[in-house]
Amino acid sequence: MTRHPRISEVVRLRFDIAYDGTDFAGWAAQAGLRTVAGVLDEALTTVFRAPVRLRAAGRTDTGVHATGQVAHADVPVDAVSNAYSRSTRREDPEFLSLVRRLGRFLPADVRVLDITRAPAGFDARFSALRRHYVYQLSTAPYGVVPQRARFVTAWPRPLDVDAMTVAARELLGLHDFAAFCRRREGATTIRELQRLDFSRDGDLITAHVSADAFCWSMVRSLMGALLAVGEHRRTPSWCRQLLGATERSSDFAAAPPQGLTLVAVDYPPDDELDARTLITRDIRSPR
User: Annotated active-site positions, please?
Assistant: First the structure.
C-alpha cells in the first residue's frame, strides 16, 4: 500500500501593518534590496519556524509609507500552535502575544499592528473594495519641520489648491488611467477613482485619494499632474484630456514618494468576500 506524505493543514492569517518607507525599496521582495515584504517574511519565518510569504493589498513603491497596509499569509496550523505556545503571556487574547514577540524581531521602521484569523474567502489583494491614500505637501518657505520631513513633501512654489480641486473632479469615475501608470506587462490600467480632493491648513496641503485599486505609480502620477495645474503650468481641463492616452504621459513627472501614505483598505462583509474576489479578477473596460 502506497503511503502519501501528509500535507500540513494551513490557516490563513491577516496582518495589519505600518511602516516608514524611507529606507525601503518598496513593498515587494527583491533580491539584494531591503524591502518591507522581505523584512517581514524573514521575521515571520523566524517566529513561526516555517516559511512565510505575505501577500499585500497594495505593493507600495520605494519611499512610500503605510499606516494601514493589509496582508495575508497561509501558515501551517502546527507552526501557529507552536509559536503561540512559546508565548510568555498566555493570558493575552489570541495572537496578541505573537504581535509582541514579533516586535522584537522587526526593525523600528516596520510594525505588525495586529494578527487575526482571516475569514473564509479572504484575500488581502483581491477581496479589497478600495484603498485609501493620503499625500501631504508643505509650501512653507523653510520646507518641512524635521519631525515630519520623512512624511511630507516640501514644495518650493505656491500652489493654487482651488485649481487642483477642479482638475481632480474631472478624473473621478471609471476610466483607463494609462497616462498615469507605469506599464506592467499584463496588468490593466482601468480603475475606478472614487475620491480625489484637497484640504489646506496653512502651508500644509493634504490630498485624499481613494480607488478600487491603483496601478503602478498611479497616485504619485495623479499628484504630479495636479501639481502642474496648481502651479498654473497647465489648465484644469488638461488632466481630463490625459484620460484619452494609451500609455504613460511624458508631459509631467510623478510627485516625490515621501509625501504618500497608504492609510486604509476596505473589505466587504465576510459573506461577500468570494463574490468580491471574482469581480476583482474580472477584466474590466471603461464605460
Answer: 61
- Report yes or no on 210 lying in a domain: yes
Residue 154: domain span: 130-267
Query: Same domain, yes or no, for 35 and 88?
Result: yes
Question: Are 31 and 80 in a shared domain?
Answer: yes
HSE toward the beta carbon, residue 195, CA cutoff 13 A: 14
Per DSSP, what are the bridge partners of residue 208?
134, 197
DSSP state letters, 196-238? EEEEEETTEEEEEEEES---TTHHHHHHHHHHHHHTTSS-HHH
For residue 112, what is the domain's CATH number? Answer: 3.30.70.580
| Residue type present at position 86 | R
Cα–Cα distance, 201 to 178 (Å, whole number): 32
**Pairwise CA distance, residues 225 & 210, whole Å:** 17
Mean of the per-residue pLDDT values of the chain: 91
Nearest to 267 by CA among 168, 165, 120: 120
Task: Give the burial string for 165-199 (b: 16+ CB within 10 Å, else e).
Answer: bebbebbeebbbbbbbbbeeeeebbbbbbbebebe
- Identity of the residue numbered 64: V
Quick: pLDDT tens for 40-52.
999 999 999 999 9
**CA dist., res. 269 & res. 234, Å (int):** 42
Lowest mean pLDDT among 106-110, 190-194, 224-228, 277-281: 277-281
Per-residue pLDDT for 85 more than 90?
Answer: no
User: HSE (CB half, 13 Å, CA atoms) of 71?
Assistant: 29
The tens digit of pLDDT for each residue in 174-195 reads 999 999 998 777 678 899 999 9
Tell me whether residue 267 is annotated as binding: no
CA distance linking residue 270 with residue 219, whole number of Å? 28
What's the CA gap between 258 and 13, in Å, rounded? Answer: 29
